[in-house]
Specification:
mainly alpha; 143 residues; 6 helices; disordered N terminus
């Protein structure tokens, strides 16, 4: 369609990841499954520090490889946080420190208050995990 002598067509933007091309080329080892991550939405009562810590925990061995850690971080984002990520400058993220700094700059809201009940719940879950882990080691050592 021409308007004022210009060719005005339907322009569809293409998404270009803010991650460097090198990071995007990183691949998981064969047979490795992508963990299911707790989602961060970017709402006011969420802690960025807690999210990063949880991401590392849930990522397991994947977190040991900086490129994979970067590549799969978006799997832990949803809603406002995911939208924020998609608006970062294409191929501008080169390393984890840079991404984490931008993430905190955008979403950090100061220290969050955690109730004693929530703290006890987290502690109980961690104790259960440790108990199960110890039982597995003991069973393995006894065979």
């Amino acid at each position: 369609m021409a308007q004022n002598g210009l060719n005005v067509g339907l322009h569809r933007p293409n998404f270009v990841s803010p991650l460097s091309k090198f990071v995007l080329q990183s691949e998981l080892l064969r047979g490795y499954k992508i963990p299911k991550f707790t989602k961060f939405a970017g709402i006011t009562n969420e802690s960025t520090i807690e999210h990063i810590t949880r991401y590392f925990t849930e990522a397991g061995d994947l977190a040991n490889d900086e490129n994979l850690r970067l590549k799969y971080f978006t799997n832990s984002l949803t809603k406002n946080a995911f939208t924020w990520f998609t608006t970062l400058t294409p191929h501008s993220i080169q390393n984890w420190t840079q991404l984490e700094r931008l993430f905190h700059k955008q979403f950090y809201m100061g220290q969050s208050k955690i109730s004693l009940k929530e703290l006890a719940s987290v502690e109980t879950k961690e104790k259960k995990k440790l108990l199960i882990s110890n039982k597995m080691i003991a069973t393995k050592n006894s065979t």
